[in-house]
Amino acid sequence: MEFFVVQFLTGLASAASLFLVASGLSIIFGVTRIVNFAHGAFYMLGAYVAYTLTERFEGFFGFWGGILLAALVVAAIGALLEIVLLRRIYRAPELFQLLATFGVTLMVQDLVVMIWGPEDLVGPRAPGLRGAVDILGLAVPTYDLFLIVLGPLVLGALWILFHRTRWGVLVRAATQDRDMVAALGVNQTWLFTSVFALGIFLAGLGGALQIPRNAVTHLMDLSIIVEVFVVVVIGGLGSVLGAFIAAVLVSELNAFGILVFPKISIVLVFLVMACVLIVRPWGLLGRPEGPARQPAGLSIRPWHPMSPNQRLLMLALVVVAGFVPLVAGNYVLTVLAEIAVFALFAASLHFLMTVGGLASFGHAAYFGLGAYGAAFATTMFGAPMVASLLLGPLLGVAGAILFGWFCVRLSGVYFAMLTLAFAQIAWSIAFQWVEVTGGDNGILGVWPASWASSPAAFYWLALAVSVAGIAALRVLVFSPFGYALRATRDSALRSEAIGIDRARVQWAAFIIAGTFAGIAGALFAFLKGSVFPDNLAIPMSVDGLVMVLLGGIETVSGAVVGAVVYKALAIWLVSQTDLSKLVLGAVIVLLVVAFPKGIVGFAEDLMARRRARTDDGGAALAAPAKAAPAAPGSGAAPIAAPKMEAAR
Amino acid sequence: MSEPILEVENLSKSYGGVHAVRGVSFSLRAGEILALIGPNGAGKSTCFNMLNGQISRDSGSVRILGRDTAGMRPREIWRLGVGRTFQITATYPSMTVRENVQVAILSHHRELGRLFGFAGARHRTEADRLLGLVGMQELAARPCGELAYGDLKRLELAIALVNEPRLLLMDEPTAGMAPKERVDLMRLTASIAREQSIGVLFTEHDMDVVFEHADRIMVLNRGQLIASGTPGEVRNNPDVKAVYLGEGSVYGGEAA
């Protein structure tokens, strides 16, 4: 009994930091609609800066002043980031902001190692709170009790801030309807900056307060960001009280889960999140999203199938790719095979995101399941490679059928978060079910058949499968089903009114995307000769997202270009520099700012503009309509207004 | 006159303690144009959304072409032969005008499950015929997202005609349009409805439109029907003047 009480208190203490970080994310999302992926990075920065400051300034004031100062320093960095970067991309598609903040996360990861080194750092104990208090015969650290009190205090302070100050009222108003707030003449620019700074302050404070409890490591950003996403989604995006309740819930689940179900402790939290989302799709205290805003990836230029000339060009490109083994060495061919695999993976995600408007944050699950499926078929049943390549993806399909059924009940950010949760569940099973999956050691010995074992042969195989898969996806886009899927994305209301079953169409799309991801995963297993839990982990899902957004979300097949550029860049950077993440992150950020429509979207714009100039007729209408600038900070504002003006 | 295509009996809906719609009964015959009017908050939209299945009703019955629609979703009601347009237009901005119509035709023929073949090449002629009906042939290849609001309303009418409906539900069909556009759209609707003997139920705030085109008018106030009849009868009804039209109004008077 005593033990459970202490475990409960430990859970509460962990909840404090989690709440601070999650409330920051929630506040930022509520007002700016940015899902700040870099939030974990700021949490980590808070911890590192606090470590440095508390090491330098000792004593009571040195420590507590250091903690506070660290949070302020991080908040200032956050405000700078908002001014320099985010302000430029508020009107980009919502997911682009996620991509930009992901780029920042990558940069911070390398910067932190550069400045503080790769070793774990152990901070000082808190002066005045070093001891332990005897509770029911067991020692509870005084610092934990302090954190338990701090959580509700911060919650109260935030409540006063939001309900008793003019600034807070504006923030709450903007959370409900920011277009209205802008119309009332509130200076949105600085409201956004200050909200962002406050959110980052809370993240930095959360990190700084962790240093007497846990070591400071350069991996703490990704572990917290996943938990924070879960907390925010369970609690309801934009709700501070919801974040508090969910933080306590998640921390207690972690504290007790490890006692009751040591095997599935990681899964437990995600299962709870999935359950909450199914019962209350907008979280415990969240509100349903307002009338559906225009989804990301809404293009004004309608899509057309390729012209005969473009088809010839594509054919020529594929033929050229087919002749590469005549000139390239083994290493290059292996790299190219990997790029081909990822092009197919990215294309499958692109189909779901662009055509379906469903941004999956856990698409790696189906890639990884396909890889594990192929590995099982090979190592357990001794299936030949071709059979494994056919059977393996079925595991991905099964996962997509199961997870997809739940996911398509949600939309927007909540859809993204649920896909993330399912991917994390799949990852946990692969990681913890050691008897079957080998856990962290993975499954080795998934080698291709002898006819495909040379790098050139495997490259040809990967190229053939990838090209066929991408072509099939493209056919799907323009098929009646593709139109039905776009219809559900463009207007759920209209689709229902003309007899389209939205959930069924989107479920089918989810399964199709999962199938092609599974095929890519099975190929990947044979390319590497092994399968690891990493194959379905979050970084893999994020890689897919980056490729899609880089290529251009408004394009038909931009993901292929995105995959080629991103993968080639990533592999090349790793071979060239130790700071590959820093450079890659910087490149992503630059690309987002310079090409907010992605590489292919940018190219299409250029061509459209040139065509408009030569036609100098009705077609010219399209260009000014596209270029019409949206008001700053109104990224999600209806796109219809400028378009209508142009047409009149 | 023919069989009624829409029969509504004792339709009711309340939110919490507020009776949004209370005991509304009426029927609509083929080729008839029926207007539902009333002040803001009278329950017009609630009524409408119950008819097309967007919200469930508390009690009462709705029969469309003789079939009780209890528990049916909007997409199932559409399959009965009900076309509808929205107060705030809902179209597919990423598609061309023609593609917008084509999707609806594909859905009508239950062909949207097909994974192969270029959808843009299917049912083009039929789509163009419907666009021609509403006078939008020249705009067929334009991106729908570029259309002016009045054109969007006409496009919605074309889409609503795709499944050869027997009943058209139009929620404020002319809201947000210029006066000339309003008259044109309602004339078009009326002529199509009479030609194809479609029953039309519409809500509207523009009394010129209502009194010129409606065969019959129902007036809703605080969830209850307070009057129903020909434009002439409703115009002179003292209750209607009190709650909605105001004293001294002469809508359509000179024409009647």
TrEMBL record, chain A:
The chain crosses the membrane at residues 6-27, 34-51, 63-86, 98-118, 138-162, 190-212, 224-249, 256-279, 312-333, 340-361, 381-406, 413-434, 457-485, 505-527, 547-570, 582-603. The keyword Transport applies. One of its GO terms (cellular component) is plasma membrane. Residues 623-648 are annotated as: Disordered. It comes from Chelatococcus composti. Signal peptide: none annotated. Belongs to the binding-protein-dependent transport system permease family. LivHM subfamily. Keywords: Amino-acid transport, Cell membrane, Membrane, Transmembrane, Transmembrane helix, Transport. One of its GO terms (biological process) is amino acid transport. It is found in: Cell membrane. Its main location: membrane. InterPro entries: ABC_transp_permease (IPR001851), BCAA_transport_permease (IPR052157), LivM-like (IPR043428). This is Branched-chain amino acid transport system permease protein. It is a multi-pass membrane protein. One of its GO terms (molecular function) is branched-chain amino acid transmembrane transporter activity.
UniProtKB/TrEMBL annotation, chain B:
The lineage of its organism: Bacteria, Pseudomonadati, Pseudomonadota, Alphaproteobacteria, Hyphomicrobiales. Belongs to the ABC transporter superfamily. It comes from Chelatococcus composti. The keyword Transport applies. Residues 6-247 form the ABC transporter domain. GO terms for molecular function: ATP binding; ATP hydrolysis activity; L-isoleucine transmembrane transporter activity; L-phenylalanine transmembrane transporter activity; L-valine transmembrane transporter activity. Keywords: ATP-binding, Nucleotide-binding, Transport. GO terms for biological process: D-alanine transmembrane transport; L-alanine transport; L-isoleucine import across plasma membrane; L-valine import across plasma membrane. GO terms for cellular component: plasma membrane. It holds the Pfam family BCA_ABC_TP_C. This is Branched-chain amino acid transport system ATP-binding protein.
